[in-house]
Amino acid sequence: MKLQKVRRLIFFFAFFLCLHFLLRFWVTNSGIFLTVCNFGGPFGTTIPKWFFIPVVLGALVFLVVQWWRENSFSSEWPWLLIFSGGLANLLERFFFGCITDYIVLPFFPVFNIADVLLTISVLGILWSGYFKKGEKK
């Protein structure tokens, strides 16, 4: 059972990291899209560098513990998506110095596919938490 969890984790990482970086490569080289190099935090907020590493490490420990506690794939997939989206943004910041955002919607900050994964994962976590709460009653 635990080996299957690790396999799913590796599959999600490989699939979504490839998707993220292939889309980034296509977007930055096509010249079709407006791209924004985001040096800050989420939605372009400014985060001090000394604050970034402890927050990321703390969040990573929390997420790993939560993911490991899940018993079925139906409650595990949001955690896998949040790992994948977060790792994609973290690697992009490490290798390129910023996160390239390229999806533009009216009246909304510019974002990328990793941000979409993070949003879907949070919605999935809230959704599964709602159903777990209903099961306990």
What's the short story on this structure?
The protein has helices at 2-30, 49-69, 73-96, 113-136; strands at residues 36-38, 99-101. It is mainly alpha-helical and 137 residues long.
Q: Between the first and last Cα atoms, what is the distance in angstroms?
A: 28 Å
Principal-axis shape equals: globular
Strand content: under 5%
User: How many H/I helices?
Assistant: 4
Provide the spatial order of strands within the biggest beta sheet. 1-2
**Largest sheet entry:** 2 strands, antiparallel
Helical content stands at over 70%
> How many structural domains are formed by the residues?
1
Mean pLDDT: 85
User: How do the helices and strands follow one another from N- to C-terminus?
Assistant: HEHHEH
What does this structure look like?
With 137 residues, the chain is mostly helical. It has one domain. It has helices at 2-30, 49-69, 73-96, 113-136; strands at residues 36-38, 99-101. The chain is globular, with a radius of gyration of 16 Å. The mean pLDDT is 85.
Write the layout of secondary structure elements.
Layout (H helix, E strand, L loop, with lengths): L1 H29 L5 E3 L10 H21 L3 H24 L2 E3 L11 H24 L1
Antiparallel strand pairs: 1-2
Helix pairs in contact: 1-3, 2-3, 3-4
